Structure prediction request, 817 residues.
Amino acid sequence: MKVVFKIYRFNPKIDLEPHFDVFNVEVEPTDRILDCLNKIRWTMDSSLSFRMSCAHGICGSDGLTINGQAALACQKLVKDFDYSQEIVVEPLRYFDVVKDLIVDLEPFFKRIKSINAQRIPTALIVGDAEKERVQNLEERSEFDDALKCILCGCCYSACPVITEQDSDFVGPAAILRAHRYIFDSRTTDVTERLAVMQKPHGIWGCKSYYMCTVVCPKKIKVTQAILRTKKKIILEQQPKSE
Amino acid sequence: MIHQYDVIVIGGGIAGLYTALTTAQNNCRVAVISKVHVTRSHSVAAQGGIAASIGNEEEDHWEWHMYDTIKGSDYLADQDAVEALTKEAPNAIYTLEHLGVPFSRNQQGKIEQRRFGGHTKNYGQAPIKRACYVSDRTGRAIMDTLYDQCLQYDVTFYNEVFIQNLLFSFNHCCGAAGYDVATTTPHVFHSRVVVIATGGGGRIYKTTSNGFASTGDGFALALDALLPLEDMEFVQFHPTGIYGLGILVSEAARAEGGVLRNGLGERFMERYAPVLKDLAPRDIVSRAILKEISDGKGIEGKDFVHLDLRGIDKEQLNRKLPEISSFIRTYLGIDPSDSPIPVAPTCHYMMGGIPTDLQGHVLTDIVGSVLPGLYAVGECACVSVHGANRLGCNSLIDLVVFGRFAGMNIIREIKSKVLQPLPLQAESIVEAKINRLLESSGSECVPVLRESMQRVMTEQCSVFRSGQTLENALGEIRQLEKRCLNVGLTNKSCIFNYELQEMLELTNMLKVAEVIVFSALKRTESRGAHFRSDFPERNDEEWLKHTFVSESPMGLKESFKPVAISKFAPEMRRY
Ligand SMILES: Cc1cc2nc3c(=O)[nH]c(=O)nc-3n(C[C@H](O)[C@H](O)[C@H](O)COP(=O)(O)OP(=O)(O)OC[C@H]3O[C@@H](n4cnc5c(N)ncnc54)[C@H](O)[C@@H]3O)c2cc1C
Ligand code: SF4
Ligand code: SF4
Ligand code: FES
Prediction:
């Protein structure tokens, strides 16, 4: 069957303004949107640029805006949309567009790096542990959800704080990454990590809009992780009795 | 643009990151270069686990692990290398844990372990729990940990830089050259040591569990430098790829209780491997599936069988295989706890690769001469611990153990290594190569040529092959290489030009495909993943040796290297 794809195009070398191209593509309802994009690139327009790697939702390459929602092109099938209408594919919002569907993710990865306190090479290494450190099931479950993050950046494109209020906000995935270490019973520099979270444009910028949680393709409870981290900061700041 | 480092690592999967981390921890200036952003490297897709005899669930010994690995390899693995691997494996797991890898835990709070194909207790008696894991996201979790560690040690990343060739000066490797995919500008990396860690090449086949970046570039880099490749005829087909898509359903699914069933609903693996059944090594299970299918016992007579997870408790399924359950729901629209999953073999892993010694040095010949300054680690390398068939969970441990050995060795050697002068025109050679393609206007197009290659390799050189099919394949691959000369790129842009990238990848894949077919043609026996229907038996008398193939002015040439055998004499392989 034929489905109409309306695709955002921009080549900074030639275009003053972005525009949309329309492709009428022969696809199956069970095809991934990524398959459709490949079909366009391989058989209709070789100049279309987009990223991909694993094609099954684990590498985080292909976060795009599909019919207005941030999603992974390899995780959405044609039948997930009303394909009697055109399917609109745009780059992730918030980030600068480099070409077509490709955005500059440098600001994203900078933030992921920024959550590390400083150069703390031994942060997780316990020198005298001969075997593994013991971590019971409850301790392990504290940060399990955060391990699902694939660094796709979808949550940034959806977060109203970063897109509309404070473009320097550290953002959901970075806080989630911090949370992953802060709630790991093995981490030895929790206090420093909590301090990093409190820097300007840090965790307190989050207004709990839950949009990150709504779009996260890995269904991570991002906002909940942020709230738990905030709570931890407050509890740590309470003067300890005695 | 020219960059200078002590160490450059081409490839940022687990192998590359581990080597980078080890050297950076010891004050080397290190750069990792990756054609996809490092966190997108295909190591993130590893699901099931990483093998080590830490014995947290039941008694285990490295000697048992060693035996299983050698038997699994159909006795082609070098036993000194397997000994080094399995002895070091427990240590490697503890080191990963200390670095922060969030392993799944058992009731005692220790690293939890599960069964995996071909891993047994007491030299083949019964399956053993040897695979350490992070639910079914083991690769992702290890990658994330190593990435964060590398950031803290100031490893520099060059993301989306595509390496085209190695640079040599006086027979010493002194760097690599490539281009930035975002701008198509050449970059030259000048270094004292070069490490190749480019992963596998599953994209040579039509159906694969590998990502789009797995195009065997590292193998081609070696071939172009006139270096040999070892044992390339051994290509692993994983038995349980989702039918049609090739996406992997890890062996962990069978380890947790899943079983294979044919069209009659029969648990057919009991007939092929009475002891290990569904957990027999992959070469055996893949052949069994295809045998069932060719006997008309596929599901409704079609070319797939069922992987049945309905026997696994729902809660266990969600805890231990969440990622797999979720993508099965997404792609097939079925719930694995209600419906069986259609599966068929999918191209998964290259056992062969760039020959190295235990320290990761790249070898230039069968007598073990070393090429100064050049190392290889990970799936692109061949130490050889996997021989003719790799056991599940043995790749990740290989990456970590030999990634570290290479790193440690580089630290020792680098003190005596000076920066060799760069060859002239390192930059302009890449530029010329790119420009030639951008200006090309022939009638052939990349996707068509690539599909032809994938079809040829899938039909003539996969699980079953014969002299006849291989001769055909060799002819067709060479024909396709010729047709590549007449390619015409329609995308002339210099910004993220993937047509250009895919053309360069195709050229690499065709070179590697030719070596795979050529090696397979030479080996007139069946061993591990290499099954010749015209020579269905293993022949230790003539073929207990490694195949080395390299390019020469007269075309490909082969030589052979004896297998290192120490503790375990070859036996019949029964499971
Ligand atoms: C789906 C799947 C599941 C698996 N599960 C398991 C498992 O449970 N246990 C196990 O032991 N093994 C498993 N394996 C095997 C194992 O994951 C791989 O063998 C291993 O991850 C390869 O790692 P690597 O570091 O060698 O390469 P990769 O992780 O593939 O990385 C290759 C790197 O090289 C870069 N690169 C390649 N060419 C170039 C170039 N020309 N220029 C610049 N950069 C380049 C890429 O960008 C990438 O960074 C699995 C494999 C797959 C596909
Ligand atoms: S919960 Fe916080 S981080 Fe998430 S979208 Fe809302 S403001 Fe942004
Ligand atoms: S939290 Fe979710 S949306 Fe955000 S980067 Fe991670 S996986 Fe992507
Ligand atoms: S291509 Fe890897 S997440 Fe979509």
The two ends of chain B are 55 Å apart (CA to CA).
